[in-house]
# Entry
Amino acid sequence: MKRERLEEVAEILDKRGKMTLEQLEEAFPDVSQMTLRRDLSQLEEDGRVIRIRGGAMSVKEVQKVSGEAYTKKTTVNMDAKIVIAQKAATLIDEGTSIFIDGGTTAMYLSKEMPDIKCNIFTNGIAVAMELAQKKNVDITVVGGQLMKDNLSTSSPAAKEYFNNTNFEIAIVSALAFTPEHGFSCNSQTESDLLKQVFRKARHVYMMLDSSKIGKINPYTFAQLEDIDVLITDDVFPREYKALFEQNDIVVM
Amino acid sequence: MKRERLEEVAEILDKRGKMTLEQLEEAFPDVSQMTLRRDLSQLEEDGRVIRIRGGAMSVKEVQKVSGEAYTKKTTVNMDAKIVIAQKAATLIDEGTSIFIDGGTTAMYLSKEMPDIKCNIFTNGIAVAMELAQKKNVDITVVGGQLMKDNLSTSSPAAKEYFNNTNFEIAIVSALAFTPEHGFSCNSQTESDLLKQVFRKARHVYMMLDSSKIGKINPYTFAQLEDIDVLITDDVFPREYKALFEQNDIVVM
DNA sequence: GCTCCTTTGTTATTATTTAACATTAATTTA
DNA sequence: TAAATTAATGTTAAATAATAACAAAGGAGC
# Structure
């Protein structure tokens, strides 16, 4: 109930750019002003909205106003990534030990995830910061050199460390996929780390939005047979879907 | 006169990200609040600033906020910490290898720091995210369990890792200090980590705002003789200053 | 010097936000 | 399932901030 409303408020603000509290009250006649205020506070904490006197403004709008092209990866295929992340979030059970990577999809996943008792290992510091808001989640961050483009860390030492760690699930995404080259990324040490994670994980879930298909990145970290479940969006090509299913991969 | 001030207001806002009117008044003691308000109105029309209740925010900051998970923890003694951080930032030279801790003062330090070639090791993920914006800085994040209150990580494995790492400078802060109990924090593993860092650092700089004095936290990680330079604010008690200087510590 | 115009300061008014508490709904636990 | 706990919402009063309106001060041009 609250969750949905929050989402709606964010959406209408993204659409209209800027609204006064009065306008928001008109749009949501069933809740009090105070509740809307509280919603805005929360959206502000999530970085989706800026509160201004008398109302609020969507961050998207601010970016437009400032005239700067916002070239971050966070916007590429963002809607698909959110849907994928929401789906993945439903697969997380209480008490499990999970590895999550540091990609943008993982970032959305950590936002959507329920606040349940579980152990999460991640190499994404943005993911870690997001998860830090959930009080039941225990977080362990992989150490190592930070890559500035995707805010993820990796190191040979971390790979060693994971020798004696086990995961129920590893939820990762790739920067690129082709049937011949498998799933690939752009960092050697990250690739090594992920290979090690897969060795220790009981199930591997791959989040792959369709924009990644047909692309190749330098370091392959997984082939079709390494993964168990594929979570993707609805424009995922049919022939690829068949290919995955032939390899006993559940496609969602 | 007006033009210059407008420019200055815009600059300081770009730098500090967000300021209350009160802070602006401190920064511009010669003009009235109303004038500053009018300045903000104008900057808002120019699209350089977003006015929020109680102050304003630079558009640049808004863009950052939208990318990051924004954990707002408006700090106690924030002004003192900023001054301390600014001072500490001047002590960083090109090409050095530096350890920075994960405290809030360190967070401000990473904002104020120049974008020069250097290697920074940190156990603070908020610090790491901030530094990620500087393209010349090479960042290594300490791995381990994340403490949600201060967004810092630590682990015995990280301590091992630092056995073969050297630092020119370690810049840290403490949660508490008394002459008898030394510098203390609230985490055993973090304390262990810092002790190890001090062993490998040529110089240790301690950032300590005066609100920390006379307090005690459970884990002592350093005594007076372990540190070389103390960076503090101007309400630091005189008798403590003498005490530090007796121990060959430079007080700034 | 004066006059017009811009900038700044002061105060009173208005509007918005926060805080505090009461109430209801939802979740957990026994 | 009911009781207990926690989270969400609503209501009101109090605090806070923003605006408006006007007065005063500073400058530029004559």
